[in-house]
Amino acid sequence: MSPTQLAQLPQLQGLPGAPHIGELPSGPLGTIADVHGVTVGHCTLDEGPIQTGVTVIRPHAGDPFVDKVPAAASVINGFGKSVGLVQLEELGTLETPIALTNTFGVAAVAQAQIRAACKANPRIGREWPTVNPLVFECNDGYLNDIQALAVNEQHFNDAYAAANASVASGSVGAGRGMSCFDLKGGVGNASRVVEIAGRGYTVGALVLANFGRLPMLIVDGTPLGRILAERAATQAATQAATQAATKAVKPEQGSIIMIVATDAPLDARQLKRLSLRAGAGLARTGSVYGHGSGDIALAFSTAYTVPHLADFITLPPLLADQRMDPLFRACADSVDQAIVDALWSAESVTGRDGHRRPSLRESVPDFASLLKHIS
């Protein structure tokens, strides 16, 4: 991307009223799919007490086992049950699509990934090594009857088949039953474009946001959660409102998965550094990485692939470490923006035992004007 194209990119993406975080421009879609080749698919389960789903991120249109992509992860707080991180840390590559689901759906989705890889490559586990499924999770048990074990292999297959560049956010896919800052959370997207040495690079983020307590919420530097909690306290005319205000001060628990994609030519070591900067974006929203929160970030590059069958691998010229600061900034901004996007895009959901999470837009109809007034 040329500097001229860079200058022509829109400064604000998403629904009207959602603030644009930082000064860097977003890509034309404002999603992780602004990184060329990346697609996302959702399978949403919305059936009474079953409020859950699967989200699949494909790093490219080909076979990720045959043509792997460089990747690395950072575990900011390890209260999580993801599958596949050990080999990822050792080898620095992805070899399946990235899958997101609820905590008890991990095994079924991992099995679906294994079956799909073996179907595409029958030599896996025989002449070739076994495949490393990669599944991330958050606990959606407040809204979803997680003990029903509703997620199965077909849901992964459906999400995989649905993957495209038109990426939905909010209460969709794996985000269907997620909560964030005592509001409805879910899937969020964002992207940022930077110029380094005369070339434009894109960083995209997709988050599965399921963390935080209302008084902690910060949006674009504004302590929105504290303001809302104070507003609720002064307007608490019913027992339900009082209970909601009391519930908001419980310890933070939940999780967030942050997937960061870039077209910048980085190796696995550099991607580890990039993934760690996702924590900066998360902290801006008010999270303190609470004891019960599984906060995990993964970064991958689409600049090149690593062939499975090769004696030698030729890498493109890699970006020098000292030129990575713009990518770090883009990562932090994208993750921050993606969390806001998850809140802003989500719809209210009622699920298990009548539990309900209102959306941000329902809870704060004057959201945009409130931020403008305070800032």
Q: What's the order of the H and E elements?
A: HEEEHEEHEHEEEEHHEHHEEHEEHH
Low-confidence stretches: 1-15, 237-242
Please bin the fraction of helical residues: 25-40%
The class by helix and strand makeup works out as: alpha+beta
- DSSP summary: helix tally: 11
* CATH second-level architecture: 4-Layer Sandwich
> Can you tell me the overall shape?
globular
The major beta sheet can be summarized as: 7 strands, mixed
CATH class: Alpha Beta
DSSP E strands, number:
15
Superfamily (CATH H level) name: L-amino peptidase D-ALA esterase/amidase
Organism: Paraburkholderia rhynchosiae
Protein name: Aminopeptidase
EC number: 3.4.11.25
Keywords: Aminopeptidase, Hydrolase, Protease
Descriptive notes:
The protein is of the alpha+beta class. It has a single domain, classed as L-amino peptidase D-ALA esterase/amidase, CATH 3.60.70.12. Helix content is 28%, strand content 25%. It has helices at residues 3-7, 85-91, 106-120, 153-161, 224-234, 239-247, 268-276, 278-284, 325-345, 360-363, 367-374, and strands spanning 39-47, 50-58, 67-78, 93-94, 98-102, 135-138, 179-180, 183-184, 186-196, 199-210, 253-262, 292-301, 306-307, 349-350, 356-357. The strands form 4 sheets. Strands 3, 4, 9, 10, 11, 12 and 13 form a 7-stranded mixed beta sheet that branches. Strands 1-2-5-6 form a 4-stranded mixed beta sheet. Strands 7-8 form a two-stranded antiparallel ribbon. Helix 3 packs across helix 4 and helix 8 crosses helix 9 (325-345). The longest helix has 21 residues, at 325-345. It starts with a helix and ends with a helix. The relative contact order is 0.20. Mean pLDDT is 90; it is low at 1-15 and 237-242.
